[in-house]
Amino acid sequence: WLYLRHQKEQQQRARRLRQLRELSLGQGDFELCDTSGTPRRKADFLGQWVLLYFGFTHCPDVCPEELEKLSRAVELLERDPALPPLQPLFVTVDPERDDAAALARYLRDFHPRLLGLTGTTEQVREAAAKFRVYVSTGPRDADGDYVVDHSVLTFLVDPDGIFRDCYGRSRTAEELARSVRAHMDTY
User: What is the pTM of this model?
Assistant: First the structure.
């Protein structure tokens, strides 16, 4: 019975991985710059697990909450030295205001290894499109300020660069960490 159960679980995992690959989420490369101005490609993160969030520094509440949750999940996973490396990434959806310096200032309030990525409007749009992230810049107010509406999802990418899972606002840091750990265990 245990053998059959194990076989069934393996088949389910394989089927889910095939379905995720068919979605084509996160496939293809992107080229952005980190907060030190170093060009970064998706290929630079091969060999490590990645938790990726798209947001912007002028976000009043959602992005800070999600980055706090992501940071907490990474801290929980780092407690186990047997787990493979995990790189948290933040990609701006507002490159007009979020240059490398703005990202560096903003991200220092979160996990110390959280890496910020930015680029031209076209580069950011292409990276977001690879993950099918919705992005829409709202109208400017009298001061020229605006809000950017975007998908609120954290993506998990495995060491092969394959999208494994995504997490919405309803997930807690503990749930996120448990899910990431389960993906790592079955990789």
Answer: 0.86
